[in-house]
Structure formats: C-alpha cells, structure tokens
Write a structure and sequence with these properties.
Chain A: This is ABC transporter permease. The complex is a heterodimer of chains A (270) and B (379). Chain A has 270 residues and is an all-alpha fold. Chain A is built from 11 helices and no strands. Chain A is globular and about 70 Å long. Classes of the chains: A mainly alpha (270), B alpha+beta (379).
Chain lengths: 270, 379
Amino acid sequence: MRIYAFCVYLFLYTPIAIIALFSFNAGRHASQLQGFSVQWYVRAFRNPFVMDALETSLIVAFVSATLASVLGTLAAVGLQTMRGPARAVFDGVIYVAIMIPGIVIGIATLIALVTVFDVLNPLLASLWFEDRQPPRLSMGIGSLIAAHTMFTMALVIVIVRARLASLEQVLGEASADLYATPLATFMQVTLPLIAPAILAGFLLSFTFSFDDFIIAFFVAGSETTLPIYVFSSIRRGVTPEINAIGTIVMVASLLLLIIAQLILRRRPER
Amino acid sequence: MTHIPIDLQYATSEQPDARPPIAALRNVFKVFGDVVAADQLNLSIAPGEFLSFLGPSGCGKTTALRMLAGFEAPTSGEVLIDGQVVNTIEPYGRPVNMVFQSYALFPHMNVADNIGYGLRQRRPRLARAEIARKVGRALEIVRLTGFEKRRVWEMSGGQQQRVALARAIVNEPKLLLLDEPLAALDRKLRKEMQIELQDLQRQIGITFVLVTHDQEEALSLSDRICVMREGRIIQTGDPQNLYDHPKSRYVADFVGTSNFIDGRVEHVADGVATLATPSGLRLQGAANAGLKAGDEACLSVRPEQIHMHRDAAPGSLPGTVHNRIFLGEHTEYLVQQPALGSLNVLAPRQGQPDDLSFQTGEPVHINWNPARALVLSPD
C-alpha cells in the first residue's frame, strides 16, 4: 500500500520536479543537464511578449478576484438570511458552478457574450451620432474579467458562507441590542469576523484566475494571458524559458494557496 | 383533630404598584407555527424591581424576555416600555439591554471595546473621553478595573459574565434583561455571581428582568417571581408568598419541594378544607380558593413543616424511617407511612440533642400543623 501511494506521488510530481529542475539548466536541451544557471529566468523577464502576457494576467486576476470577493461576500451574507427551498436552490447552483468543467464555462460564456454583443452593438450604434465612431463591445480583457469573476465568485461564496455559518448568530442579536443598526452591525461585527475568509477567498480567486487557461482561451479574444502564451509557445517546442515561467507561476500559486490556507486555519477567535 | 384557625393572609405584592410601570405586557400572545409560546401575558414591571420569569424549558419565559428586547414581535397584544407601545420598534431602538446566556461578547474586540460598543452607537456621538470614563466606571462596578485591554476569550467564564454585565449596564438601560445568565457557571461561582447581581441591582437601581429555570436562583434574587407554564403566567408573587401560598400543585412543586397527598375534598369551612385520602384518612389544610366539596385535590406539606416524634401525639401518624441523609445543619429523612407512602421530612439540627436524631428503620410518629398544610387543586 505504501509503495502504491509512493508510486502515485512519483507519477504526479516527477514531471513538475523535472520542469523546475530544467528551468535551471544551463544548456538548451531538455535531454541533458549542463550545470546550474538562471539565464532562462532572465530571458523570460526580458521577453516583451511574456511581460505583456504577465501584465494582462495580473490585471485580470486582480480585478476579477476583487470583484468576486465583493460580490461573493454580499451574496453569502444575503444567502445567510434566506430560508427554505430558495436557499437550497441557490446553494445547489453555487456548487454546480464550481463543479462544472472549465471548458463548459468557457464555451457557455463565449456563446452568451457573443449573443449579447450581437444584440447590444447595433443598439449602441443606433444611439450614437452618425458621424462618430460608435463603441463596439468585443471579446477582450473585459470579457476575461467577467468570466473569471463569475467562476471565482462561487468559490468566495462557499468560503465566506462556511465562516458565516460558524459565527454565533447571537452576536448579531447582541449588536442590535446595543443600539447598532443592521448596517452598523455588518460593518462592526460581521465584516471583521469574516474578513479572514474574504481574504482567503480573494487569494484563491486570484490563483484560479491567474492559472486559468481553458476559460481564458475561449473568452480572451485577442488578449494573451500568461497561460495562453505558454500554450501557444509550446507548439514551437518546450524551451527552458517555458520551464522557467512554469516554475515561477507554480511557486507563486502555491504560495498564495498556502497563505489562504493559513488564514483560514488560523485559530478562529473563540 | 382539633380545629386550628388558619391564617389566610396573602402578601400584597400582587396589588398594582402606585408608580407607573417601567414596562408592561398587555394581553400578549406569541405563536410559533402551532406552538403557543406566550398565552395572554399580562404583567406590569415596577421601576427598580428585580423580576424573574421562572419555569421549565419551553414554558415561554425566554420568549417573554425576547419580546421585551425586541427580538420577537408579539402575535397580538402590546409590549410597553416606559409608557410607549414598542411592538414595532426594532431591538436597536429600545432602551433595554440584554445579558445573553452565552454572553455573546464580540471576539474581535478587547474588553473595553466590548463594553463601549453600545456607547459608540449613540448619535450624536459621545466624546472618546466620555466613553472611556463610562467604560472605566462600568469596569469598576463589576470589579474588573485594569482589564480594559484584555482579549475576551482569554478570560474565565465568571469574568466574561461580568464583562457582559458591564457592557449592558454601561448604557443605563430602562430594563436590564438577563437570559439564564448564570447557567454556564459552576455552582460556587454561580453563588458568588448571584450575590454580586443582587448588590449590583441595589447599587445602580436599574430594573432587572431575569429568566431562569433554577428556583433557588429565582427565590434568592427576585423581588417578584412570575411562575410560567406552557406560555402562561400561572402565579406571580414575592418569593415568600409563592413558597407559602402556592395556588396550584405545579407552583408548590416548582417553587421549593413539597409532599403531595392526593384525595377528595370532603367539605370546606372557614377556608379550611378536609381532604379524604383513598386510604381513609381525614386531613386538613388551608383551602385553595375555588375548592368545593367533591373536588379532586391534593394536600401539600413542606418537608420542614413535618415534625417527627418518638411517642404518639394527638393526631400523629405512625411511620418508619426509611432513609436518612445528614446535611449538616439539617437532616433529611424519608419516612414510610402505611397510608400516605413516602414523605420527605427536613429536621433542623439546631437545639436538638444528638439522641433525638432518628435511625434508619426506627418507628416514628409524624404530625404537622394543619395551618401549614395547603389543599390545592391537583393541577
């Protein structure tokens, strides 16, 4: 049994370890190690395409994670006060959003957005003066942010809901009893107590958005995120530069995930 | 048996107070689904009094308290605070504060911030220095000076309890509501806190409304007790009045302990009822209002009212000591009486020479002053 488990881990992590290892390879070929070097990292950071893609990825991840945190928290708080079958339905829908494969979300979002744009673009054009160029809605950074926000919002809702459920309801009553209006109670009691969950949700959302390839592939339009860049360069062969990018992304993602876990696990204040 | 004049004097605490009540319930009903949690509650709470709702869990006492706090709205009837109908006023709009059973201290705030929470909600805002002064004063009252910066979860149960108290009294509410505040404390600490609560109430003069299922707590703390059952207030009175003049077997059983002897009322004269037991005994006691000949009834005798003798006396009944529990200043006996079954007897030790204590298995004769026995309707 132990050997079996060991084999599973070996199978899972060997490729990742090899990528990390070869990203420090001084030579060009993936077949042989030729000494330690960070030249591929330097090259990756000097490559303007990589930097562009990184910038796009960071913007999308940051904006979508922020939106998801705000909207997800509001949704979670709203759901907490709901009762009965409506709540069960919403709960189910949220879990479905997490379980649906990325490719389905990608295609569905693409079709939905294209359909909406087809309706809105002529409408916008008709509203503008004839001599001016009407704005045209199209796929791009906006659609990327929208799709990622939608997906990661479900994550935030689940995490914040768990925290809200563990809060004693009597704290809200105590606050109301001490003359705090519902808004004041939310700001002074609920929000500070669920803040760690929101932060953890933000970090997870950021990681998911930053790492996502499938959804981005469908809705990015002409934009290139880092995973899309990596994918398209692989078609020209795996270079050590790609290994270096992969290693950086992996380390950054792992760090964010670990921080999120630490925040969530931190001893809840009684 | 000789006829003994029975003193039927009732305490006057049920008479309406001359001062206008600080809070009142008028014909209040509360229904949850098909459960009636409050059934026609009528009550006036006098300024400065210490009132308790006493009853088993599910009797509606907490519902009554929560309607005063504003967490529940009555299905019908009126809740008044300081002369105003407050039915539609939210908890945060009511000049009352509550001490919760679980304390409900805010875990992300230190002691001073917890206590100052209510003061910080005031509009127009209070000056920081004013809040700090009031918080300091409240800490002084609950004897926690110097604990301002402590985190609440680092404190013991008793200390948390005091922080919860301070957080409520610092607002100088018209009513302080206490929901089983001592239930989570161990026995010794509970005793201490009871004394502190009573001192505190005298010191600050705020009206206290306590909910408890602990009759000892209600008896020792309250000026007035409302005994509740199935959503109704079945008797209200000061502790001694309730103990001495329960109007029903339920109250006699819930407030203190008592021996109950079932039977049928033979006749009632001058407030004295004669009860015939199934075993053929004739027993007398002060008649509960409304009892008449032929009614099912029960005779209630408190354990401390039964006297034990070595020799037969006029009107005494023979029995056998079945069990003996030495309690220090008292000894509790279980006496087996052929016609009446087991009776609890509480005999004080004071003034009793050692040779007068009875041994298990010893034959004894018991009697009681009929004026100290009550004939009650069985429910």
